[in-house]
Amino acid sequence: MGLPPTVRPRLQLLYVGDAELARQCLGRPGGSIHVVEALPSTAGFPPVPADRPLPFDILLIEHGHSGSDALAILKRLGSIVRHIPVIVVAEWDEELAAAALTLGASDYVSKSRASFRAVYFRLHRLRAHAALLAERSRINDSDAARERSGSERAELVRQLTEQQAARRDAEQRLSEAVANIKQTREERFTDAIAAAW
After folding, report:
1. Radius of gyration of the chain from its Cα atoms, rounded to whole angstroms
2. Mean pLDDT across the stretch 163-184?
3. Residue 134 near residue 116 (C-beta atoms within 8 A)
4. Which residues in the chain belong to E strands, given as ranges?
5. What integer pLDDT is reported at residue 43 of this predicted model?
6. How far apart are the C-alpha atoms of 103 and 97, rounded to whole Å?
7. Mean pLDDT of 122-142
8. Residue 93 structural domain
9. In Å, what is the CA distance from 107 to each residue of 20, 67, 113, 124?
10. Contact 17, 62 (CB under 8 A)
11. Residue from 105, 90, 122, 107 nearest 25 by CA
12. Residue 4 lies in a domain
């Protein structure tokens, strides 16, 4: 089964901020993700009229880079954030994370290799899931779909079920990675306090 016409062969990722680390972790040459960097100018963002969707599959906004304000960008994007995943990249700040998620951000991550690796796997999982949902929707909306045999529908349901199981597994691995990062931070903090005494 190939990708539906609505799914591009390469993910188009727009990174608002300094995209060097994201490009290293996500946008490998010849890979499945193409990273485009945008400067967070307050007057010129988003780069398309508000009534049209962004020509990207995902948007990462780095809060605080060159004075960029992820919350202001999210407000400006408005309903566009419902159509594509938007991830805010910043140092951990619970209030900022809550505000970003309230304004429609899909996620909030720190700017680190571990976070970008987790984003990389999540993007591929979401992409595969979106491809399956697009295919399922296409089949359900067409008259020909009503004539499909039960075995073809069962295969699509099986694929979707496998994708959901893979998503749960990826989320578990992501949770474990976050727990490891937190534990490492706590250990470093404890070591620093002990060294100070």
Report:
1. 20
2. 86
3. no
4. 11-16, 33-38, 58-62, 86-89, 107-109
5. 45
6. 10
7. 74
8. 11-196
9. 20, 21, 16, 15
10. yes
11. 122
12. no
In a domain, 5, yes or no: no
16: β partners: 38, 61
User: What b-and-e string marks burial along 51-76, b requiring 16 or more CB atoms within 10 Å of the CB?
Assistant: eeebebbbbbbbbbbeebebbebbee
C-alpha to C-alpha distance for 44 and 157, rounded to whole angstroms: 43
The reply to whether 6 falls in a domain is no
Residues 63-72 have a mean pLDDT of 80
Strand order in the sheet with 33-38: 33-38, 11-16, 58-62, 86-89, 107-109
- Mean pLDDT across 156-173: 87
- Asked if pLDDT for residue 32 goes beyond 80, the answer is no
d(CA 196, CA 169): 41
pLDDT value, residue 53? 57
Mean pLDDT of 102-115: 86
Q: What angle do CA 166, 167, 168 make, to 5 degrees?
A: 90
Question: What does pLDDT average to over the chain?
Answer: 76
Reduced to 3 states (helix: H, G, I; strand: E, B; else coil), residue 12 is: strand
Using the Cα atoms of residue 14, residue 20, residue 23 and residue 25 in order, give the sign of their dihedral. negative
Task: Residue 156: give its domain's CATH number.
Answer: 3.40.50.2300
Number of independent structural domains in the chain: 1
pLDDT score, position 98 = 92
- 19, part of any domain: yes
